[in-house]
Amino acid sequence: MAELPDVRFLTVAEVAEIMRVSKMTVYRLVHAGELPAVRFGRSYRVPETAVTEALRRPIADVG
């Protein structure tokens, strides 16, 4: 069996707290494809690395 990389998954509530947005905003980002997620049953889990990358990306072009 191949070894899986050491990936930490976060709940939608944890992502919302880290990003300081509502859970609904996180769901919108997931459904729009802007934030990758894995569905486990009826809930979603977001890789921690995806949250870190999303926070580093510029949201709007200011200037």
Task: Explain briefly what this protein structure is.
With 63 residues, this protein is an alpha+beta fold.
Can you describe this structure?
The protein has 63 residues and is α+β, with helices and mostly antiparallel strands. It has helices at residues 12-19, 23-31, 48-56; strands at 9-11, 38-40, 43-47. Helix 1 crosses helix 2. The longest helix has 9 residues, at 23-31.
Largest sheet strand order: 1-3-2
Mean pLDDT: 89
What order do the SSEs take from the amino end to the carboxyl end, as H and E? EHHEEH
Low-confidence stretches: none
Distance between the termini: 51 Å
Task: Report the β-strand fraction as a percent range.
Answer: 15-25%
Helix count equals 3
Proportion of helical residues:
40-55%
Q: Please state the structural category.
A: alpha+beta
Number of strands: 3
Radius of gyration from the CA trace? 13 Å
Profile the largest sheet.
3 strands, antiparallel
Described by the principal axes of the CA atoms, the overall outline is: globular
Q: What is the number of domains?
A: 1
Domain Helix-turn-helix: 9-57
Organism: Microbacterium fluvii
InterPro entries: DNA-bd_dom_put_sf, HTH_17, SinI_DNA-bd
Protein name: Helix-turn-helix domain-containing protein
